[in-house]
Automatic annotation (TrEMBL):
Reactions catalysed, as given in the entry: a 2'-deoxyadenosine in DNA + S-adenosyl-L-methionine = an N(6)-methyl-2'-deoxyadenosine in DNA + S-adenosyl-L-homocysteine + H(+)
Location of region: Disordered: 113-133
Compositionally biased region (Polar residues): 113-126
EC number of the protein: 2.1.1.72
Name listed for the protein in its UniProt record: site-specific DNA-methyltransferase (adenine-specific)
UniProt GO MF annotations: DNA binding; site-specific DNA-methyltransferase (adenine-specific) activity
Residues in the signal sequence: none
Short name of one Pfam family: TaqI_C
Stretches that traverse the bilayer: none
Record organism: Helicobacter muridarum
Length: 225
């Protein structure tokens, strides 16, 4: 894969919230997505930018400048995204920046592990997986969480060559509890990352409470719709 395709951020042109995918594998996308690249192909810079784009602060700001689609959707066109206030890394305290990048990396690794665990369990049960339905052996899979860090993952489809054995009740219980713990850990990391982003942008307690309150109200409305 040519190097120019590696190290990029992908985001959909329509979604219910601002979601950015960090792709380090060089996948292609269709016309339904936009791509952000870094000329330096610096993973830490991409981690930082992905963290900012997926943050509560960024989504709150985007809600006020982006185009709405229906009751709950947004159009994330380039004309809106290029207006987002992204602080350049050299203007952030170095220790704070390192913590943002480190936390983003932890979330990425946690979500990758969670996905691989789920894929393994599905294969054991003989369940079809999105990448198994792709027309090629190596599938592109995006790991996505609510305002979380996302990473593309490649994997060879070998499920057809493996004997399938159904999971026992004990296996299913262990799998469920493990995934639940990983989800809980990720939410804790995401909350910490949001706090770091608030700090990087110098927001005070009143401003943070405003963002948290508005987004909490929106989440409740979405659950009721």
């Amino acid at each position: 894969m040519p190097r120019e395709y590696e190290g990029k951020i992908i985001y959909p042109n329509m979604a219910k919230e601002f979601i950015a995918y960090l792709d380090t594998q060089g996948f292609f996308t269709n016309q339904k997505c936009f791509i952000l690249t870094d000329k330096c192909k610096d993973k830490n810079r991409l981690l930082y930018l992905t963290a900012v784009l997926n943050s509560k602060m960024n989504f709150w700001y985007f809600k006020h400048i982006g185009a709405t689609l229906g009751a709950n959707g947004y159009e994330m066109s380039k004309i809106f995204v290029e207006r987002l206030p992204v602080i350049e890394t050299h203007k952030i305290d170095s220790k704070l920046l390192q913590e943002i990048e480190f936390t983003a990396e932890q979330i990425l690794e946690s979500k990758t592990q969670s996905y691989n665990t789920q894929n393994s369990a599905d294969s054991m049960q003989g369940k079809s997986h999105p990448r198994d339905n792709l027309p090629c052996g190596n599938g592109a899979v995006a790991l996505m969480g609510s305002r979380g860090i996302v990473k593309g993952e490649k994997g060879e489809n070998k499920s057809e060559n493996l004997p399938l054995a159904p999971l026992t009740k004990a296996d299913e219980t262990i799998h469920f509890e493990k995934n639940k713990k990983q989800d809980c850990d990720t939410k804790t990391l995401e909350s910490h990352l949001n706090s770091l982003i608030y700090q990087a942008y110098g927001l005070n307690e009143k401003e943070i409470n405003l963002i948290e309150s508005e987004l909490s109200t929106r989440e409740r409305e979405n659950r009721n719709n």
